Amino acid sequence: MRDWDHFLAVDWSGAKGERHKGIALAIAEAAGGPPVLVEPPSGGWSRVDVFHLLRDELPANTLVGIDLGISLPFNDCGAFFPGWDRSPSHAKKLWALIDEICKDDPHLGAHSFVEHVEARRYFRHGKGDEGDRFHLPDAASKTGRLREAEVAQWRQKCRPVSNFNLVGAAQVGKSSLTGMRMLHKLRGSLPVWPMDPVPEKRLKQGGSMLVEIYTGLASREAADALGGRNGTRTKLLTYADLNAAIGALDSPPVDKFGEIDDHSSDALLTAAWLRKTASEPERWEPRCLTAEIAWTEGWTFGGL
Q1: For the residues 106-127, what does the mean pLDDT come to?
Q2: Could you give the CA distance from residue 6 to residue 206 in angstroms, rounded to a whole number?
Q3: Which residues pair with 46 in a beta bridge?
């Protein structure tokens, strides 16, 4: 596996509005040192800000990890939206469909898609408000349909939730849909693993790649490395806990004390985790990842 010069972790948000406290970026350098937060614009990050950074300002040879689902379940039913004649045949067409339906939604929002007369049938919108096709197929988990990558995460002691679920603190459906709009707009600028081949390293510009990450997986692996000292917690709310976790990932500590918000700690932890795991061949060759799954569902980097 080729090496990278920078590791950028993005904690994303699918919330309504322009600027979000839930978006945080952190970068770790291959040369060493602690991960550091990327200073946001005045008022905080917007999704459009992140898009412009990834398209126009990304340092060469950066591995970008973004905390969202890059696709929806497909393998379980042989389609993203069984029974809908507009159901796309692969992930990149899915991105295009979402962006087309949401073209008038500001701030890379995806409200128009989840309220689309056909698309909304596949999502859980609220307590007691489930689309009539949310539970396809009949054998699906009560949490909704899962991608093969999410099934693998359950085997790794994580608890991912279906991207068709739009309800609750653990849901990532809204984040994933807004993120897919951004991925569509990044086509031609930033390759996405595993749909695209890993680019060659370049000396001056380019050579970067985006992967899906799951901050809960990074937290779980750090906790395991600590021998369970942090229990099953996936949120680190003090610099002491954060530094213990990134120390378990062979990273120097962040030189700060006291409390930290969970979005910043997620970004810092995952930047350090990316730096540690990106050189491990098995992360790029998970045993259940086939060419068809790569092209339709994608995969979560690190999921084995």
Answers
A1: 96
A2: 12
A3: 19
